[in-house]
Design brief:
2 copies of one chain form a homodimer.
Chain A lengths: L4 E6 L8 H13 L3 E7 L1 H8 L9 E5 L10 H7 L4 H10 L5 E4 L3 H12 L13 E4 L2 E6 L9 H17 L7 E6 L9 H12 L4 E7 L10 E3 L2 H26 L3 H19 L9 E3 L5 E4 L6 H16 L2 H16 L1
Parallel strand pairs in A: 1-2, 1-4, 2-3, 4-11, 6-9, 7-8, 7-9
Antiparallel strand pairs in A: 5-6, 10-11
Helix pairs in contact in A: 1-10, 3-5, 4-5, 6-7, 6-11, 8-9
Chain lengths: 340, 340
């Protein structure tokens, strides 16, 4: 019998919890028999969503957690005080080896803090970045870091570049991925203090394919595979991507409905158009992994719906199969050995 | 006879200089008789573009400048050494009162440095921000700062908020403009060190309508009129806006051409669609003013073509008519008086 990937799922986190989260978990176990979900949260809330639904009972376990960490709560305090919150309980399952992975749409800061404090970083990793895949004209690029830990140091960004490169090569199958740092000009002398300090360090890394600076205007065309930046900038890029795509698609629909002639045209063109635009829908790509932790933690959008939760759970299987964390450990060891 | 607005134009700056710049200047004087352009640059280059073209000679003056500041040149050194560059010569015209305004598509850093060193800041203004208008679902918002001076301090951001508010109220006619600071969450406790320090200062300003944090995803829908951020983040927003809009429009065209049915639809729908998308074209909005300088300096995109140059020149007339700089001076004086 094949070993199941066990995924702890935070039933209480995100704008659409618990309804969409539970639905996403049910869809994931329906899709693949080799997944087991541990659904963590308030029992009455979860049972309400599960009642009357038929599913494979051996693929779903209910884990009780009496507390919930809210979106606006200060993360450090929340992780420390709410020992019986869904996030803390699930992360302990991961730490104890009862689960392989953890998926949550909850408080980003709490997930990052909990990841570092409860699950723990790989030895040698200074900070665990949140690294979503963003759609481009050519496919997808990894945007690293979009986490809640802002004001990064140059050494953090160098590790982000290395981990991102491993992820794109071994999970996404991009050979020799192009790594670039987000900057306000293509020239080496441009940038803020952080970028100016980081640039020469990245140039020295012979284990990555560093192609220099990337201006934000060149991200959507897919000019780099791994896009390195600190978390404030990464957040701005990720959220502007979402906002601008949805606004433009709205504007386009309005344009198509503005004249009778264009309405007829729209009726003919929309099916093909929808397929193309789907490629630019960030929710298609499921969750973003926190890289550099001892266990796999995947954060989905706060606004995640069932489909995104399902995709995030499925992603855990690939991540485990590809043994990404072992590859990161090897890379760090190698760098340390070279230094000695 | 009506007084002309005299605009010095950098014929040598930008990717498409001198051809598109000269063409833009010619179009501007053809459109309005109350503009006089002082075209600054290498005489042979400018004359080549003007030869054989008929235009109102009294609306165009050729000003010789033997040097050019290149895009990649370190700004401070360039302004200091290249005394006979088009940027320095034109800024001196502004300083001496021979020109009312200066338009350039050249080296952003040099324009910012020259603006501060040659033209000079309004007394009390600590830093002159570059403030382009960006398209939104509801119209346009002012993005302040997108300049080359990164790593700003909280007091800079407070002045940006004030100047931006004046601009949107008096140039764009938005009454009581909503001012927001770019952040990675809506909550006051989120953000990097700069945002956390600036937030309470903005809350205290009773001369602006501060509505709190804005996440990048809410910028395209027009959730604020004045969007305050430091220049690195502003640059990322501006350039991602440009890049993502153009990529999405490309993707949409591809989608429309993918099937025979959609091709027929596209032929019917495209004219209406083009009109709608035009509203999302940043080049429609001409140049971005450097606010807070004693004279008016307008920076257009490095990739500016004739239409954008024309719009930037026309914008100078409005800016002069509305006496924006006098309003900024009054505001600064008032704040100082209140403090005393």
């Amino acid at each position: 019998m094949q070993e199941k990937t066990v995924v702890a799922v935070d039933a209480m986190g995100g704008d659409n919890a618990p309804g969409e989260i539970v639905k996403g978990a049910l869809d994931a176990i329906a899709k693949r028999g080799d997944i087991k979900v541990m659904l963590v949260g308030k029992p009455e809330a979860m049972e309400k969503e599960l009642s009357g639904v038929s599913y494979a009972k051996e693929q779903m376990e209910i884990i009780e957690a009496s507390e919930v960490i809210e979106t606006a709560e200060p993360p450090v305090m929340a992780i420390r005080k709410k020992k019986d919150s869904s996030i803390v309980v699930a992360m302990n399952l991961l730490k104890e080896g009862k689960a392989d992975a953890f998926v949550s749409a909850g408080n980003s800061g709490a997930i990052l803090v909990g990841g570092q404090v409860i699950v723990g970083r790989i030895r040698g990793i200074e900070r665990a970045p949140l690294a979503p895949l963003i759609p481009t004209e050519k496919g997808v690029s990894l945007l690293i870091d979009c986490g809640a830990n802002v004001d990064a140091r140059p050494s953090h960004l160098v590790q982000f570049a290395r981990m991102g490169s491993i992820y794109m090569e071994h999970v996404m199958g991009v050979s020799n991925p192009r790594v670039a740092i987000v900057n306000i000009g293509a020239e080496e002398e441009k940038g803020n203090a952080l970028v100016k300090e980081t640039f020469p360090l990245l140039k020295e890394c012979d284990d990555i394919n560093f192609i220099g600076s990337i201006e934000a205007r060149d991200i959507p065309s897919g000019a780099a595979d791994v896009i390195v930046c600190e978390a404030f900038v990464g957040n701005v890029i990720l959220k502007l991507y979402e906002g601008l795509s949805s606004t433009l698609i709205g504007v386009i629909k309005q344009g198509l409905m503005s004249t009778l002639r264009s309405k007829i045209g729209a009726a003919l063109a929309l099916p093909a158009l929808k397929n193309t635009l789907k490629a630019f829908d960030a929710t298609e790509y499921g969750g973003a992994p926190l890289l550099g932790l001892r266990g796999l933690v995947v954060k989905t959008h706060g606004s995640a719906k069932a489909r995104e939760v399902t995709n995030a759970i499925l992603q855990c299987v690939t991540f485990k199969e590809q043994a990404i964390n072992d590859k990161i450990k090897e890379n760090i060891l190698q760098i340390q050995e070279e230094k000695e």
